[in-house]
Design a protein that fits this description.
heterotrimer, A alpha+beta (473), B mainly alpha (102), C alpha/beta (482), A: 473 residues, Arc Repressor Mutant, subunit A, three-stranded antiparallel sheet, 15 helices, 39% helix, 21% strand, B: 102 residues, mainly alpha, Histone, subunit A, 3 helices
């Protein structure tokens, strides 16, 4: 079978996290009563005019920055003219000639090989309204009409479904962490379309491309691209040709299905939007947008590694934005970061999941957490203690010390007292001492158990262990 | 120069504009659009201008709007002028296929 | 007793002294309109509401010159709760749910909206004959057009129904009908008045303005309706000013340019002669008048056709029968809904311009024509602005002829643009332009002169206009009684 080279380009629409819409001051919201988030501008009433939300420009500049794009200093908007019921003015305000960002890239890593995915351009535009089909009618809800979007278009430089997935994951993570978008694919705040074509040699011009739309998850983007590559391969192998077309991913079939064959080029009659003057982007605006960029995931991975976290733990933290942000407040402290991450990802996460809370909704402050990590690191409390204390830690504002006292958790750290107890235990369990000296590690565990039994679990496990080993010599 | 547009050209434009034309109108536009095009062809005789575009004659830079929520319409009010509506929705004959836009 | 043919200062004094009440003015206005019904100046009257408002005003102090005065609005200005049709079938049942910014301002002055005036459908035309509601007639001769597209506003002012009307001007639609009906019409600088709530024809050219019987009243009304508006990004950020402040001030030493293009062969002898008389008058009063060439003026028409129709084709796309307005019945599917609603809803001229505009923007045409037109427009604007480095104002005739017969053929699509050939350049450059009457032709139809100013120099235009008005002292009431 011939070896084919796939060429993939991806277009992503991302809804911006603003309070209001791009061209009107009605609320940018999701999941509300139909047509309750509109005004006359969103409905395209005659005589109404667009205004321009400054936060949209701010977030778009930020997006351009984190995607390593160049930023256009003077730009305008264009009208894209087409009739469709979800398009209230029957033109969409977008940027065709002067996209705010261009020539950017995102770095991905597939199977240990780093690669730059190049971004052709990113522009600002308005979202359409939502339509639902019921029998022979279509119902229109204009709540989404005018929600701000950025569209990010890659160069055709992606060569596999794996790379596409890695790109989208990276894009989502980056935009989410920069507070640009929620990037919730299931709510439609991030939507991806892929253009796929294959050819035999690099020198050969691109062959017919197929657009795959409406893919409901990142993993399905990867899957649909792989399936599409296979489909095209088979067609070429059988010496068949096909027309440029749009397909969609069918969840049930786990495969792409034909939506429509593309007619002759669309005629959108783009022209500059006369209702919105040129937008001049100043250096101050760019600085302002950059100031607000929090530490991005790649940087976090690096810092967490330096603090001794395992790669898996670092990634787990980054997957939970609020935990990672909490962790970042600790970075300057003198604590055991490995233990800190273990507590956050272990007991604290379990609590948060069970209670369906975010860490910011609990009473766990940076100061109390530091106390907790220290108390745990020096063995003052055991993991069992931690579990017992957890509800109080998360729900009250008492100090860790006070909670311990309240719950009667008082570990014996007094060396002399422990020494006496351990000495007695060794005398009473000579059989185990012999076993230990013959190399049976199990015996040590048994002896520790006896210590705990004798102290009703109050012995500081680390100190007890040390004394025990000393006595056994 | 050809004296009229083809029928297909006129129908393409009528479809872009979503205006249904009678046979008579199609023929009329074949001639009229061509005439007009010959008229506006004159701008190709204009020489010596620079390539900057002027969207409109304003003097100020864009003033951006603060991201603050304003008054919205009651859903009933939003639908009041729509010839067909049901519940909280505006209703149109069924639409097949996908939006060309966003 | 009649009041609405008096000057604004007199009416104001009567109101202030309590000798008359706003309701007297409102009732008189409706009486006048009824007597002049034949003119067909109005599409919708606001009778009940106007009377109600007038009565409410009796409890409010007379706080400004415009207080309690009836005003007529062109029917492409959005009025909450008052039908707004744009002279079109597609909006003939449209009751807006919001007010235009200009309407807010008018209401803030306690003026009373008397009705919505007749106009060319969506302001597309030059004789108001494309109105779905039939053409308005010229008060000077009912066989004649009153121009367009603000024909109804011009007619009701010329007939002295009311003192004030608002028109809109995309390519001469205030100045040209003002010229045909012998009234004062001002198209201010682009950006002076918020366009929010003016149904868009060509967004980069549209501007509303006052239409009145004299210069002073025009300036007073302009004072009330200008200003930066958060809702219109193209509205200009200018300090408040009094547009009447230069009225009556000496014009000696003013420098005025007459672009040769405005006095070319297309202009009829009668109009040209009257214009030359006026120039002579100015020179006699120590005003410098030079004839000059201005580059690109001859291209303005072509640029206008491309830009105005291109923008219009997009602006009028929203009229699809889904969210408001007329919707065709018995349609099979969504495509059919669009095609039938727009076929039945729009008149012939509007459809023609939408077709042309769509064509000029389609495929490669946008690059070849539209973008090129925008570039040339920029240069034309610079050329015109250059003139004002040496001259205070420009003048010329407003129209090439006086008003023609209502029965003249309408089948030449280029004719309506030719009616506006002298007034279009002003819109292309965003400059202010106004018409003032300067005399009559042999059949006693009014002849108008255009004054063109530099951006935001309307006050200076009123200064010259009021001087000419005073010097000529014409009797501008049709029928002669004053």
């Amino acid at each position: 079978m011939t070896n084919y080279i796939p060429t993939i380009g991806i277009e992503v629409h991302v809804e911006l996290k603003t309070k209001t819409k791009i061209f009107s001051n009605s609320k940018n919201g999701y999941g509300q009563m139909a047509n309750s988030l509109t005004n006359v501008v969103d409905l395209g009433y005659p005589g109404t005019l667009p205004t321009l939300n400054e936060e949209v420009i701010n977030l778009a500049i930020r997006a351009a920055t984190v995607l390593n794009c160049k930023i256009r200093k003077q730009m305008h908007f264009d009208r894209k003219n087409y009739f469709y019921p979800d398009n209230p003015k029957n033109y969409q305000i977008t940027q065709a000639r002067t996209p705010i960002g261009y020539d950017g890239y995102v770095e991905i890593n597939v199977g240990g090989t780093p690669k730059k995915i190049y971004i052709e351009e990113m522009h600002i535009e308005e979202d359409t309204c939502k339509s639902a089909h019921r029998g022979d009618k279509t119902l229109l809800d204009f709540n989404r009409a005018g929600v701000p979007l950025i569209e990010i278009v890659t160069k055709p430089c992606i060569s596999s479904g794996e790379e596409a997935k890695a790109y989208l994951e990276k894009l989502r993570e980056t935009l989410f962490y920069s507070d640009i978008s929620d990037c919730k694919i299931e709510e439609g705040s991030m939507r991806a379309d892929a253009n796929v074509s294959i050819r035999e040699k690099e020198e050969e011009p691109f062959r017919t491309k197929v657009e795959i739309k409406n893919i409901g998850s990142i993993s399905n983007v990867g899957l649909s691209i792989e399936k599409e590559i296979e489909r095209q391969k088979k067609l070429y192998e059988n010496h068949e040709t096909f027309k440029e077309q749009t397909r969609r991913f069918d969840d049930k079939l786990q495969d792409t299905v034909l939506m429509r064959v593309k007619e002759t080029g669309n005629d959108y009659r783009y022209f500059p939007e006369p209702d919105i003057p040129f937008v001049v982007i100043t250096d101050e605006m760019i600085e302002h947008a950059k100031e607000k960029i929090p530490m991005l995931p790649d940087e976090r991975r690096k810092v967490y590694g330096e603090k001794g976290l395992l790669e898996a733990n670092a990634n787990k933290l980054i997957q939970n934005r609020s935990l990672s942000d909490f962790f970042n407040t600790l970075l300057e402290e003198n604590i055991d970061f490995k233990i800190a991450s273990n507590i956050l990802l272990g007991d604290v996460s379990a609590y948060l999941n069970k209670e369906e809370k975010s860490i910011t909704d609990t009473t766990l402050t940076k100061e109390r957490f530091i106390e907790l990590v220290k108390t745990y690191s020096d063995g003052t409390i055991s993991s069992k203690n931690l579990k017992e204390m957890l509800d109080s830690i998360m729900e009250s504002d008492k100090s860790i010390k006070d909670i311990m006292q309240e719950q009667g958790i008082e570990n014996i750290s007094d060396d002399a007292e422990l020494k006496q107890i351990i000495h007695n235990i060794i005398l009473e369990n000579q059989e185990s001492v012999t076993d230990f000296k013959n190399g049976h590690d199990r015996a040590l565990k048994y002896l520790m158990g006896q210590v705990m039994k004798e102290t009703k679990g109050k012995a500081n496990p680390r100190i007890a262990n040390e004394i025990l080993l000393e006595e056994l010599k | 120069m050809e004296e009229k547009l083809t029928r297909e050209e006129v129908l393409h434009v009528a479809n872009l504009a979503r205006i249904k034309l009678t046979e008579e109108e199609i023929e009329k536009y074949q001639v009229e659009l061509k005439k007009l095009l010959n008229d506006v062809e004159k701008i190709n005789e204009v020489k010596g201008y620079d390539d900057e575009i002027l969207i409109a004659c304003w003097e100020d830079n864009t003033k951006l709007r603060k991201d603050e929520e304003g008054v919205m319409l009651d859903p009933k009010k939003a639908l009041e002028n729509a010839p067909s509506h049901i519940g909280n929705y505006i209703e149109v004959p069924v639409v097949i296929g996908e939006s060309e836009g966003a | 007793m009649k009041y609405l043919n008096k000057k604004i200062e007199e009416i104001h004094t009567l109101l202030k002294e309590g000798k008359i009440k706003p309701i007297d003015l409102v009732e008189e206005a409706f009486e006048n309109i009824e007597n002049n019904k034949e003119l067909n100046a109005y599409i919708t009257l606001n009778k009940e509401e106007a009377i109600k408002e007038a009565k409410e005003l009796e409890n409010i102090e007379v706080d400004n010159l415009l207080f309690g005065l009836p005003i007529a609005l062109k029917d492409n200005i959005i009025t909450k709760g008052l039908r707004t049709t744009c002279g079109s079938h597609i909006l003939d049942n449209f009751i807006p749910i919001y007010d235009a910014t200009i309407v807010d301002k008018i209401k803030a002055k306690h003026m009373i909206i008397i009705g919505k005036t007749n106009m060319d459908e969506f302001a597309m035309g030059s004789s108001s004959r494309t109105s779905y509601f039939g053409p308005p007639k010229n008060p000077w001769n009912k066989e004649k057009i009153c121009g367009g597209s603000s024909g109804g506003s011009a007619a009701t002012i010329a007939a002295r129904d009311v003192l004030f009307a608002i028109g809109s001007d995309t390519g001469g639609s205030i100045r040209q009908p003002a010229s045909y009906t012998g009234i004062v019409g001002m198209k201010p600088t682009y950006g002076r008045i918020s366009r929010y709530g003016l149904v868009a024809f060509a967004s980069s050219l549209d501007q509303m303005g006052p239409m009145t019987k004299n210069v002073y009243e025009n300036a007073v009304l302009l004072n009330a309706i200008v200003g930066k508006d958060e809702k219109d990004l193209t509205s200009a950020n200018k300090e408040e000013e009094d547009f009447t402040r230069l009225i009556g001030k000496d014009v000696k030493g003013m420098k005025i340019a007459v672009p040769n293009f405005l006095m070319g062969d297309i202009v009829s002898d009668e109009v040209k002669n009257k214009m030359n008389e006026t120039i002579k008058l100015l020179k006699e009063n120590d005003i410098t008048v030079d004839f000059i060439d201005v580059k690109y003026l001859e291209n303005a028409m072509t640029l206008y056709q491309i830009i105005a129709m291109g923008e219009a084709s997009s602006n009028l796309a929203r009229f699809d029968g889904i969210r408001y307005g007329f919707q065709a019945e018995n349609v099979k599917n969504i495509e059919d809904l669009y095609l039938e609603t727009r076929r039945q809803g729009f008149g012939e001229e509007v459809k023609r311009r939408i077709m042309v505009g769509s064509y000029l923007l389609s495929g490669e045409n946008a690059k070849t024509y539209y973008n090129k037109a925008l570039s040339i427009r920029d240069d034309m604007r610079k050329e015109l602005k250059n003139v004002f480095k040496k001259y205070d104002l420009m003048i010329g005739p407003t129209t090439v002829t006086t008003a023609y017969d209502l029965t003249d053929p309408m089948n030449d699509p280029r004719k309506s643009f030719m009616d506006d050939v002298l007034v279009i350049p002003v819109n292309m450059a965003g400059l202010p332009g106004m018409n003032i009457p300067i005399g009559f032709d042999q059949k006693h139809m009014p002849i108008g002169m255009q004054i063109i100013g530099n951006s935001f120099e309307e006050a200076k235009m009123y200064q010259l206009a009021s001087f000419i008005e005073k010097e000529l002292n014409l009797n501008l009431t049709p029928g002669g009684e004053e």
